[in-house]
Design brief:
Layout (H helix, E strand, L loop, with lengths): L15 E14 L17 H19 L3 E8 L1 E3 L6 E3 L4 E8 L4 E7 L1 H5 L7 E4 L3 E5 L5 E5 H7 L8 E8 L11 H11 L4 E16 L19 H16 L12 H10 L5 E7 L9 E2 L8 E9 L2 E5 L6
Parallel strand pairs: 1-12, 10-13
Antiparallel strand pairs: 1-11, 2-10, 2-11, 3-5, 4-5, 5-6, 7-8, 8-9, 12-14, 14-15
Helix pairs in contact: 5-6
C-alpha cells in the first residue's frame, strides 16, 4: 500500500490591490431561450422574433465560451397589450403604446417619437407588434426587431420597476462543471423562472488595474484558485466580491452561488494587505441599470472596497482611493 502524500503549501508575502471599473454591460433576456414544453416544435413567435432569439442564443453561447462576470437579475414582467393597436399622433409625431405590467396586468400607456430613438427616416414606420417583441419595418429589407425590454430601455421609460440582483457569478466558477454549457444554464433558468417576473443576464466587462508586488504559489489540487487559466482566479474573486457586496452572508440557491465570503476569506488568508475595489457604475438613470438586492438599495452607482484585516473581510460602500 502506498503512503498518502501530504500536500504542502508554499506561501510568499504579497501585497495585492485590484481595481475593476465597469466598461460595458450586455443585457440578455434569459426567458426567451427557455423551451416551451407544450410547443411541440411549433414556435409561437414570428420569423422576426425567431431571428432575434437565434442571435440571443449566439450571444449567450459566446459569453459562456469565454471568461466573463455576470449578474442574474429579475424584474416585473412587462408585455405589450395587443388588445390596443399602436396609435400615431400626427401633431406630436408620437406613437402611443399600451403595456401590461406584472401578474396583475396593470395597463400603462407610453407615447414615444420612434424616429428620435431608432434613427428612422419617419416617425410613423410600419409596425409589427407581438406581446414580447416589436419590429419597426423601414422597408422589405431594412427592419429593427427589439424585445419589449430592449424597447423600454432604449427610450428610457420609467415604469417604477426595480431590478433585483439574484446572483453574481463568473463563467470559470468551480461550482460549474467543466462541461457547463448553455443547455445547463437553460435548465437553471427554467427551474427559477417565475410567472410574474422576467430573468436577465447582465454580462459585464471591466477595465482591471492590478498592482501585485509579490507572487504567491498555491497547491496543485483542491484549491478554488488553481484553475486552468491564469486569469480565472481574478474573475472568480471579482464575482465573489460582487456576491459578497450584494448578498453578504446571505445564501442564494440560484446557480449555486454560495460561500462567497468563505472563498474570499481563504484568498485573503493567502494574500496579506489585500484590497479589491469595484466600481459598478452606470451613466444616467435608466431603470434597467438601477440595481438592488435584499441588502443593497437601488442605485446606478455601486462602488465598494473590500479589505483584509486580521484575516477578516471588511467592506466599505464609500469611495476609497488607493
Amino acid at each position: 500500500m502506498k503512503e498518502a502524500k501530504s500536500e504542502t503549501f508554499s506561501y510568499s508575502q504579497t501585497q495585492m490591490q485590484w481595481h475593476a471599473d465597469l466598461v460595458t454591460t450586455d443585457m440578455l433576456w434569459c426567458d426567451l431561450i427557455i423551451s416551451n414544453p407544450f410547443s411541440h416544435g411549433v414556435s409561437e413567435n414570428s420569423q422576426y422574433a425567431q431571428e432575434y432569439i437565434g442571435k440571443l442564443k449566439n450571444k449567450m453561447t459566446q459569453a459562456f465560451n469565454g471568461q466573463c462576470i455576470y449578474l442574474l437579475c429579475k424584474r416585473k414582467k412587462v408585455r405589450f397589450d395587443l388588445s390596443y393597436k399602436p396609435k400615431y399622433n400626427f401633431l406630436t409625431k408620437k406613437t402611443r403604446f399600451y403595456v401590461l405590467v406584472g401578474s396583475e396586468h396593470q395597463r400603462v400607456s407610453i407615447s414615444v417619437d420612434l424616429a428620435a430613438y431608432f434613427l428612422l427616416d419617419k416617425s410613423n414606420p410600419t409596425l409589427f407588434l407581438e406581446s414580447k417583441f416589436i419590429t419597426l419595418l423601414k422597408d422589405r429589407r431594412d427592419r429593427i426587431t427589439l424585445s419589449i425590454h430592449d424597447f423600454l430601455s432604449s427610450i428610457n421609460f420609467h415604469l417604477g420597476i426595480e431590478t433585483e440582483v439574484l446572483a453574481a457569478e463568473c463563467t470559470c466558477s468551480p461550482y460549474n462543471d467543466p462541461a457547463f454549457t448553455l443547455n445547463d444554464f437553460q435548465h437553471e433558468m427554467a427551474a427559477n423562472s417565475h410567472q410574474s417576473c422576467d430573468l436577465f443576464l447582465y454580462v459585464n466587462t471591466y477595465n482591471i488595474d492590478l498592482n501585485i508586488k509579490t507572487l504567491i504559489s498555491y497547491p496543485s489540487k483542491g484549491d478554488v484558485y488553481d484553475l486552468d487559466k491564469p486569469a480565472d482566479s481574478l474573475f472568480l474573486m471579482l464575482s465573489r466580491s460582487l456576491s459578497f457586496y450584494f448578498f453578504g452572508e446571505e445564501k442564494t440557491d440560484i446557480l449555486a452561488v454560495k460561500n462567497a465570503s468563505d472563498n474570499l476569506g481563504r484568498f485573503v488568508l493567502r494574500n496579506q494587505n489585500f484590497k479589491i475595489k469595484i466600481s459598478q457604475v452606470y451613466e444616467g438613470d435608466n431603470e434597467y441599470t438601477l440595481l438592488k438586492s435584499q441588502k443593497v438599495s437601488s442605485s446606478v452607482n455601486h462602488q465598494f472596497t473590500i479589505l483584509s484585516q486580521d484575516n477578516e473581510l471588511i467592506i466599505f460602500h464609500d469611495d476609497i482611493h488607493f
